[in-house]
Amino acid sequence: MKLIAVFFTLFCCFAYADNIKVGADAWADVTETDGSGIYFKLLNEIYGAENIEVNIESFHRSLKSFEDKKIDLLLGVFREDVKHAIIPNWYINTDDPILVFYRKDSPNKPNIHNLSDFSNSWVRGYHFERFINDRSDTYKVNSADEGFILLANNRIDTFIDYLDNVPTALTDKFEYFELLPPRRLYIAFQKNQRGQKLANIFDKNMSLLRKSGKLKTLYAGLYEKSELDTFEENKEKMVILTDEISLLRGNKQQVLPVNQTLKNNLNLLFDQLDGYDFEFKLVDNYADITENIGQDNLCYSDMLKTSERAKHYLFSQPFALYLGLQIYSKTPLPTNEYNQVNLLALLNTHQDKKIGLVSGRSLGEKIDQQLSQLSEKQIISTPTKLNRTLAIFNHDRFDYLIEYPQYIDLLWPNISQTKLYSYPLEGGRLYSVGHMMCPKTDTNQTFLNHFNQNVQTLVNSGALYNVLTNEVSDVKQTEFTRYFHQVFKPKTIVLE
Predict the structure, then answer these.
(1) What 3-state DSSP class applies to 454?
(2) Which keywords are on file for this protein (predicted)?
């Protein structure tokens, strides 16, 4: 124990040229406005109270201060909250479930799939829109109290927040369902040399505090909920970047089959990788993937392999299979003798027409090359969430959409009764495959070696085929099975 105490002292006495500027919202028990709270006590233990300068303001303003580099660290963030930051290995808490509250007397009950039909509200800066499948009518408020009062007075249909924040006088007026299960909350450090040193000190001292029993004392009644006692710090952390919300929701909620397939597929593969601690991070687009070049312990899920990406990224064996991309329109399109659409000719002929695309997303090298020749005025940037993109398409913000048919077949009937015309593209492939894509590092290569072994095992057992066919219509099963054999070459014959 003496050795631990000495080691801890060495790390808490790091020489700080300036005070460590800490940003935080005011949260009960952890970051109180008077400077008390578990998080502040923790920072005092790790860095020394004399080195800490606390600035408490709304989360929205704290986040802006962090982005403007006015503070050194920001308390209580999800990975998605900060784009340019160092996130340590240790987290500081496990968040409560994010809940959707609505009035008990509401004639129409919201659920996880129909939130776009309601006016939804949350505290400004929380960006809960990331976790809603469809675009919805939203209203931001400055505090939880304000939101719950608006909900009680029938000014909004739902308020998205936490159970502990419901005013006592209003608890009997609301019902709720879970939008997102408990997730880890982190400290975000500035992405510079000073931030890296502070993050390293935090990680090393969190381990020592737990070993000494001091961490349990600091957290007191919140220690069990935080799950810090069971955190396996020696497991290899892998952050999986995805645009699929269902991967963040765990196994408690029912999700659409098209989302459930990818979720089941990854769960099946990850469950066998017991030496890794997986955490999902939601991405809004793929325009900034070059920023992660060279980063350890990070992979993108379900990515197309291109020669440009292969310069900086490693790719797993395929683990997902999709029938070929098609172009969709609300009106018939001209085609060649094979019923294919020439994308460039179409848009050059109709220069007033626009196509919706997710920024940074690859649709295959040949199609990407054609798209690169279009005028920027003809390209409308769309969300990664397909439900939202289809809602925008339905409102005629753009004229053409390129997507996988099994997704459109499932989702479009829930959005509109308008007929869509679909065609394969000249230069397009009959099918596409999804890979894990990880920056080129030894650590990531080791992970992919393990991942690939699991893929092959599931291919040979027939389990991967069974999962992937869940989203394929009956009329496409024979075609899909043929492509499955071409791509995965299972040792046992899979019958459709």
Answers:
(1) helix
(2) Signal
pLDDT of residue 17: 61
Can you read off the two tokens belonging to residue 336? 């060649």
> Most distant CA pair in the chain: distance in Å?
81
> What pLDDT does 7 receive?
44
Segment holding 478, helix H or strand E? helix 477-488
E strands within 255-312? 276-282, 298-303
- Tell me how far CA of residue 1 lies from CA of 22, 44, 118, 309, 332, in angstroms: 30, 21, 57, 49, 76
pLDDT score of 31 more than 80: yes
> DSSP secondary-structure letter at 30?
T
Write the burial class of residue 161 (CB in 10 Å: 0-12 exposed, 13-18 middle, 19+ buried). Answer: buried
Contacts of 320 (CB under 8 A, 6+ apart): 262, 265, 302, 433, 434, 468
SS3 call for 422? strand
282, β-bridge pairs: 242
Neighbours of 330 (CB within 10 A): 15
Give the SS3 label for residue 329.
Answer: strand
Bridge partners of 140?
Answer: 122
> How many helices, marked H, and strands, marked E, lie in the chain?
15, 22
Strands 20-24 and 73-77: parallel
What angle (nearest 5°) sits at the alpha carbon of residue 386, between those of residues 384 and 390? Answer: 125
Give pLDDT tens digits for 384-426. Answer: 888 889 989 999 999 999 998 888 988 899 889 999 999 999 9
Query: What's the pLDDT score for residue 1?
Result: 42
Domains and CATH numbers, the chain: 2-94+183-232 (3.40.190.10), 98-180 (3.40.190.10), 240-322+434-488 (3.40.190.10), 326-424 (3.40.190.10)
CA distances, 379 to each of 270, 345, 375, 442 (Å)? 37, 15, 7, 38
Q: Do 399 and 333 touch, CB atoms closer than 8 A? A: no
**Distance separating alpha carbons of residues 211 and 172, to the nearest angstrom:** 43
d(CA 185, CA 97): 12
Q: Mean per-residue pLDDT for 306-326?
A: 93
3-state DSSP assignment of residue 211: helix
SS3 307: coil
271 or 97, which is more confident: 97
Strand pairing report for 400-403 and 326-329:
antiparallel
- 449 by Cβ neighbours in 10 Å (0-12 / 13-18 / 19+) ranks as exposed
Dihedral class, residue 427 (left if φ above 0, else alpha if ψ from -120 to 50, else beta): left
The pLDDT value given to residue 217: 97
Cβ-proximal residues to 335 (8 Å cutoff; 6+ apart), any chain: 341, 423
What is the pLDDT at residue 263? Answer: 66
What are the tens digits of pLDDT across the range 329-352?
Answer: 999 999 999 999 999 999 999 999
- Tell me which residue of 115, 430, 423, 384 sits closest to 259, measured CA to CA: 384
